[in-house]
Amino acid sequence: MSEKIFSPESWRSAGGAVDDAGGDVTSRLVSRLGSVQITGQEGLTLLDELVAGIVPAVMDAVNGALADMSTGLRDEGAALVETGNAYAAIEEAAAEVAGHMNEGF
Prior knowledge:
The protein is mainly α and 105 residues long. The protein has one domain (12-37, 53-103). It is 81% helix and 0% strand. The protein contains 2 helices and no strands. It has helices spanning 8-34, 46-103. Helix 1 packs antiparallel against helix 2 (46-103).
């Protein structure tokens, strides 16, 4: 049977990593997609021109989706950090209560 170990710091660390991923994924994809260019050595064909006309609209949609994904990842990261902080506070309170209970015995 595997044993799961939980610590507030593990949640904080995971939250930071997820938050970082929210920014990394967006910047990497925008950089990669922004480097796509439609060029031809002998000029653009009619199909090239049609595709070139569509690319800006597609990029706008992709940028919107990436912004939403980035926001979602950052929100999830912040929630993980908050969970770790809340758990740490509960552990501290429980230890304090336990200390008072042991004083009575």
